[in-house]
Amino acid sequence: MNNKLQKQLLKRSKAAKLERWGKTISFLALMLITVTVFAIIIFVASKGLSTFFSNHVNLIDFLTGKNWNPNVTNSKGQPEVGALPMISGSFVVTILSALLATPFAIGTAIFMNEISPHRGAKILQPVIELLVGIPSVVYGFIGLTVVVPAVRSVFGGSGFGILAGTFVLFVMILPTVTSMSVDALRSVPRYYREAALALGATQWQTIYKVVLRAATPGMLTAIVFGMARAFGEALAVQMVIGNAALLPTSLVSPASTLTSVLTTGIGNTVMGSLQNNALWSLALVLLIMSLIFNLVIRLIGRKGAMSK
Amino acid sequence: MNPKLSNRIAISILYVIASTIVVILAALLGFIIISGLPAINWHFLTSPARAFTAGGGIGIQLFNSFYLLILTMIISFPIALGAGIYLNEYAKQNWVTSLVRTAIEILSSLPSVVVGLFGFLIFVVQFGFGFSILSGAFALTFFNLPLLTRSIEEALAAVPNEQREGGLALGLSKWETVIHIIVPAALPTILTGVILSAGRIFGEAAALIFTAGQSAPALNFTDWNPFNISSPLNPMRPAETLAVHIWKINSEGIMPDAKAISSGASAVLVISVLGFNLLARFVGHRLFKRFTAG
Amino acid sequence: MTKKRWIQCLLLVGLMILGGWAYQTRQVNKSDMTITAVGSTALQPLVEAAGEDYSTHHLGTFINVQGGGSGTGLSQVQEGAVDIGNADVFAEEQKGIRANRLIDHKVAVVGITPIVNRSTGITHLTTAQLIDVFTGKARNWAQVGGKNQKIVILNRAQGSGTRATFERFGLNNHRSLAAQEQDSSGMVRQIVATTPGSISYVGFSYVDKTVQAVSLNGIAPTNQNVANNQWPIWSYEHMYTGKHPQPLAQKFIKYVQSREIQNSLVRRLGYISMADMQVTRDGHGKVHRVEAGHE
Fold first, then answer.
1. For chain B, how many structural domains are there in total?
2. Shortest CB distance from B214 goes to which of C23, C67, C268?
3. Out of A35, A213, C108, C137, which residue is the most buried by the measure of CB atoms under 10 Å away?
4. Most confident option among A48-62, A194-208, A263-277
5. Nearest CA distance, C103 vs chain B (angstrom)
């Protein structure tokens, strides 16, 4: 009798076993993702770094050079792989589209969450989900048939360029930024609003002075997340930006981004050759940039948490 | 300024912004559908594509898109759910967790063409899956996991802590609490995340060009044995999806009616996503009702 | 709970039986009956159509054709990952490829022509003018006999076979100015058709009434002029295999090169049949006349 009880007490209960199982399985799922990410990072890094180690391209030349012509060697006997035009193109397009999208996204999020939750849920939520659902190929196609001619007739030039890219990216990142801003607003506790309104604040004062302040880290995360998406978007931008490896001089002259050069070139190069490695170096720059975006998010989040 | 006045101004500006977004979407949808609708008919939706003569359809591509979406969801949803649960319920707040989170976010901002090439080298070449639906599904899984994991984690985090405490107080283990209380409570939100990512998968082209391939061999729709090469269910056959088809027609299409086909296919793509959203919304609504009232 | 377990078990067993049955009754497909061809997107429609034709004539064979670009095709066939690499450049011209490890099978010829937007008023140019336009010496169409309009250059992507051919034989090895780039012919045509003052180059099959093809030194871009090399801007379409190709790959390439396909599909897709060519050209650009009666 005593023995049996002892056994029963010492043995793991069914629930405890299940608990272990559940924890292990969910942990394995997470590990799977992590391992995949690191595999991709190592893969991209090993390919991207071989431009510098096995093809002996100078890192400074790569980052500051203005000529992108991997097939051609320059006077110093080094291949022309200056990535500055693409790097600056990517940055300009990303920052401009984020600047354009932020007021719209945050305004819509406030409208959906604070002003008219009913209409928000009934009309705007489906609208945003649909905007996410429109594939980048279709955005690119519309950009090509509507945005580019419009830019051309208003500003002159060929119509291809940073401005067209900005407009297309603006619509593309809008839903991402909006839905994440909605999440940020939603996580602000209800009693913050109640307290502010009880103090006699108007609705806008409540939103502006209390809700937005409390949701700032979440909003910034949303914006940087949108920027990261803009930075990595390939097909749509490639169709409208013109893909000219030139330093951007005006908003309506053709430019290029890291992704557009990567997408156009990768099928035409041979695995392991310098031309191919140089493209992977661009991918590595993309990776490092998204790392930096993440660090920025973290810093903002930490500051926001401290001042609260 | 008078607080009441500024309140009114601010709120009307917000109205304007919100309606602008609706107008943008309406214009986009209107453009896509109006330019695509004339091309759509039963023949277009069911017949196979033609390489260089007019009159081709998108039947096979449409089926491939749905099949690939389902397969990707079957692979990625359990992984994302597990990872989301671990991150939100079990993970300690330390540097390892934050490293993992960063890793996931990096994966989500990788350009899909890089994911596609990685998938190409790993699945198509290394594992010998060839250009196949399976390779495509794995590549899309990479592409889908970060977004889905994130939205599941957020959905779980939004469930109030009282629910957890209630479960634990009833003597349930943590895992049982998660499975029986937290996940069902978060289900409508999780579903929204699934729809959002499904839309992204459905329209993805760049990651599939090098994995699921750009050709759609003829299928025999009476043969449902997944081991036959011409069966629609065979996961090892190459499968061009609708989005890839649009991309291909726009870039190299030499059929005389390329423009009509590409706008028709775009319209079908967008309408599918629309129908998909409505369905999921309906199901989510039903689920929410069942869990809250029953 | 136990009842639920039972149903679960039963379902599982049922699924396994179904799977086993499906596996047993599958159509047996020997692995040597399937080949994969990867590479040039320009060549893809031809190989795809020929592959479908071949499969209907030889039941049970399956030819899997994918795009991905000439570079991908050549590097994959070099590594033995695929059976056939489709390319629109000579393997010798592609950096990183050991051409002596591959066998070249030429299956068609494609002529490439400059195209301009119709508003430029240009219908013919000389080679010197073409070089001026693409190297930036001429900035306005008025300088080369057109209307007063700014020249907008549109290039194919770096490493594209069409661009390599155009710069080599159209611009006499001059490098084009850094300008807009697009990675596909369809897109190039669409942009040239809609952008005032634009110029680019595409394969003959992409020329339609939305753009203006340009004659060069008084010679029109026609198949006839390519066949006798009066129009110098043309290239071969290649299907590369390894040194020891699969029997099916060999048979299939023979089929593509056969008179039947050359006279039907190849022409219908806007290529120039190998049989029509009165000259041959090697990887170094050396042209030889073909003796009459010799294929």
1. 1
2. C67
3. C108
4. A194-208
5. 22
Helix A258-265, helix A274-307: angle, nearest 10: 150
* Structural domains in chain A (count): 2
- Chain A interface, mutation test: which of B86, B145, B195, B242, most A Cβ atoms within 10 Å? B86
Look at B215 and C44 and tell me if their CB atoms are within 8 Å.
yes
Q: What is the pLDDT of residue A104?
A: 92
- Measured N-to-C along each axis, helices B133-157 and A14-53 cross at an angle, to the nearest 10 degrees, of 120
C99 close to B (CB below 8 A): no
**Interchain contact, A245 vs C74, CB within 8 Å:** no
Domain extent for B72: 40-293
State pLDDT tens for residues A7-31: 777 777 777 888 888 888 888 988 8
Question: Which three-class secondary structure state does DSSP give residue B282?
Answer: helix
Question: CB B112 to CB A205 under 8 A?
Answer: no
Sequence-distant (6+) residues with CB within 8 A of C171 are C127, C130, C131, C134, C135
For residue A59, the one-letter residue type is: L
Pick the residue from chain C with its C-alpha nearest to A241. Answer: C180
Rank A120-129, A230-239, C201-210 by mean pLDDT and report only the highest: C201-210
Quick one: which of B69, B247, B95, B209 has its CA closest to B148?
Answer: B69
Reported ipTM: 0.79
Task: Check if the beta carbon of residue A159 is closer than 8 Å to that of residue A152.
Answer: yes
> Strands C212-213 and C102-116, how do they pair?
antiparallel
Q: To the nearest whole angstrom, how far is the Cα of A110 from the nearest Cα of chain B?
A: 8
Residue whose C-alpha is closest to residue A277's, from A72, A43, A88, A120: A43
Could you tell me the residue ranges of all domains in chain C?
Answer: 35-109+233-289, 110-227
Interface test mutation site (partner C, options B245, B251, B262, B263, max chain C beta carbons within 10 A): B251
Of the segments A118-122, A244-248, C269-273, which one has the largest average pLDDT value?
C269-273
Q: How many C-beta neighbours within 10 Å does residue C3 have?
A: 7
- How far out from the chain centre does Cα B242 lie? 13
Nearest to A25 among B82, B100, B281 (CB): B82
CA A212 to CA A207: how far, in whole Å? 6
Task: Confirm or reject CATH 3.40.190.10 for domain C110-227, answering yes or no.
Answer: yes
Place of tokens 């870039």: B251
Task: Spell out which residues of chain B touch residue A286, defining contact as CB-CB under 8 Å.
Answer: 110-111, 114
Chain A, 69 to 98: residues with Cβ < 8 Å from chain B are: none
Q: Are A165 and A245 found together in one domain?
A: yes
Chains near A, with 3+ CB pairs < 8 A? Answer: B, C
Q: pLDDT value at position B122?
A: 85
B99: in domain: yes
Angle at A234 between CA A231 and CA A240, to 5 degrees: 100
Q: How far apart are CA C164 and CA C89, in angstroms?
A: 8
Chain A nearest CA to C76, separation (Å)? 9
